Amino acid sequence: MDDDRPYAVLDIDATLSDTSKRIHFIERKPKDWDSFFARAKDDAVLAEGLAVATTLAAEHVIVYLTGRPERIRRDTEKWLKDNGFPDGEVYMRGDTDRRPSMLMKLGRLKRLAEQRPVAVLVDDDVKVIAAAQKAGYTVLRADWGLDPESQPTLFDAQESEGRT
């Protein structure tokens, strides 16, 4: 049954989880990445993200593709489970991987597409979305999370520092 369903790939931060209560850790200099990620387990759920994930799970194999570092895997998987997200494989950034998010995520999308079709990528990062579209993937921009115009910190960190 699963073998016939394509992948639906979902980002986590600012797509499924509300990062607004911890963004202040990376607005300061120097950025406090340890505290930023340590508080990820306390994020509220973005209702729109949960609805999209639940809807997609009916006809897709769910994959979570996040720029969060591997070291917080246990907290991330627990958060997804505790908040009612559909089961799915979680792919995280290696703890020392500092590539821009669009490169890291596009590389993973290509590897996933070798296993089965990728029906859709759901992400908040406009650069990730643009790169995925250019590579031929169908995308859904998660515009219900952080607004890149009013909260540039997270978007800058994803691309220039390869941190989330």
Automatic annotation (TrEMBL):
<dbReference type="Pfam" id="PF25109">
    <property type="entry name" value="HAD_PNKP"/>
</dbReference>
<dbReference type="InterPro" id="IPR023214">
    <property type="entry name" value="HAD_sf"/>
</dbReference>
<protein>
    <recommendedName>
        <fullName>Polynucleotide kinase PNKP phosphatase domain-containing protein</fullName>
    </recommendedName>
</protein>
<feature type="domain" description="Polynucleotide kinase PNKP phosphatase">
    <location>
        <begin position="9"/>
        <end position="143"/>
    </location>
</feature>
<dbReference type="InterPro" id="IPR056782">
    <property type="entry name" value="HAD_PNKP"/>
</dbReference>
<dbReference type="InterPro" id="IPR036412">
    <property type="entry name" value="HAD-like_sf"/>
</dbReference>
